[in-house]
Amino acid sequence: MPGGQYQVTSTKFQHSLYSLTDSSGAGPEDEEADTSVRLTPLQKLTSEMCKDEKTIKELIIGRRVGFYKVRGEIGYGTFSRVKLAFNALTKDKVALKILDKTRLDSQSQRLLSREISSMESLQHPNVIRLYEVVEMPSRLYLVLEYAGGGDLHNKICNEGKLSDNTSKVTFAQILSAIKYMHNINIIHRDLKAENVLFTSSSCVKVADFGFSTRVSSRSDTLDTFCGSPPYAAPELFKDECYLGPPVDVWAMGVLLFFMVTGSMPFRAETMGKLRRCIIQGVYTIPPWVPGPCQRLIRGMLKPVPTERYAIDQMLGCDWLLPVEFPWLLLPPQPTSSLQSLLESDNRGMEEEEEVRSLLEELGFTTEHIQNNGLTDSRSPVTGVYRILLHRVQKRRGYDLPPMVRGMTRQQLAGHQMTLRTPSQPAQTSQTQPSYTLQPWKHPLPGSSQSRPGPTPTSMKRQMARRDCGDICRPDNGRSVRTAGADRPGAPLLCGSIHMQMRSAGGGTSEGGQQAAADRP
What we know:
By secondary structure, the chain is α+β, with helices and mostly antiparallel strands. Among the domains are: 5-58, no CATH class; 152-326 and 404-427, Transferase(Phosphotransferase), domain 1, CATH 1.10.510.10. The protein has helices spanning 28-34, 41-51, 53-61, 106-121, 152-159, 164-183, 244-261, 271-280, 291-300, 311-315, 339-342, 350-362, 366-371, 380-395, 409-420, 456-465; strands at residues 5-7, 14-16, 64-65, 68-76, 80-87, 93-100, 130-135, 139-145, 186-187, 196-198, 204-206, 213-214, 221-222, 226-227, 242-243, 323-324, 403-404, 480-481, 492-493, 499-503, 506-509. The strands form 8 sheets. Strands 3-4-5-6-8-7 form a 6-stranded antiparallel beta sheet. A 3-stranded antiparallel beta sheet has the order 14-20-21, with helices on one face. A two-stranded antiparallel ribbon has the order 1-2. Helix 12 packs across helix 14 (380-395). The longest helix is centred in the middle third of the chain and has 20 residues, at 164-183.
């Protein structure tokens, strides 16, 4: 009955139906009796949150948020900051996205609502997970899966272009995530290298669903022009409606070009010139990129949306044929979440049994599950459940990256570690011929492929000196000039600006800043 109470264990702690904290009905005699009884981790934590002065102070100053202990900052955006945290019960690391509700206008609130709704629907090895939502009077906290391997943009800027096999493994995971999203009618609309994260085991995670949207059918047209200009499809720069899936396909083409060359296909000094480059669809693929990869890039970067490759065409292309996913045979993600823990028919599932056992060890009972919602992401029970379920799935190989046929996992891991060594030159396709599974074009005499690749430092300098300027994102997310940009003719590096392009000649960033447009 709502408002009633139930006894959790033989101790004197009593929990209300909708709270994990102990009630205030216990008297001094009860407190003395409690000292002789061993508390569960859940009881101990909730007791500290109510009575321990240090814990209460941490909750007040923001060093704790719900069941999470907050640590240092690991990223930030226009309206949010991201901090490292860990669950006080499970000890698992999480990423805590903090949003100031007082700074969100009605449009930003709608985008945030879409982000939460999209992430609630997504359960895939290559999509970042939402564990829990914690709402406070002035702040909103999204508890997300922690990917500790950095992002694709920084990886390439610091280490140079990816090797052929590493590109295959990375792109195949992005493609798998987008196919899954499109199958359930979710369009990302903001794919870029900064939103492709890596775990410590090199598993790819697509993140940032702030501009995502759900459509009733993939043939539905959209009219909100948003995303990052360097990755925007030509139709986004025109005052007309567009189809969602081809926009994501175009962005994947830009991503693949960036991975295999270390530079962007469309570069310009100003937003207006960038817009013209993208609409014209003129770019040059270096000759040392393998032929099958070149065909895939050209199939994705076609100016006419209906002529672009479909997802299934990309999955069946020659370049990706050697890629094998280790988790394809795993059982599908249960759709009922916590409900499966309450239904006896589903208790035979090994994963659910293991999660249930872990919950019981922490002190969660069937009453906790029933009274705190079954699919409500704003429940701390849901957060703990999702963290434990993900931990169990990772132990079963759910987050392992795919393999390239003919290579062992140790060989691939060693090859990726070689790419991470800053002191070594960036690897080219010619340096690992034994791993090559697709036919390569032999380097011409005197070509760049016959010489050792540039070091990461020289590559970054070369990128900064290019007349058109590679499009890179500075830490503050705004357009900046590189060193020496005060000189006449120095290139402007167009940052990864979240834009809502309201006209064909320019747009407004998410923070309300007007993007520079080159007027004819």
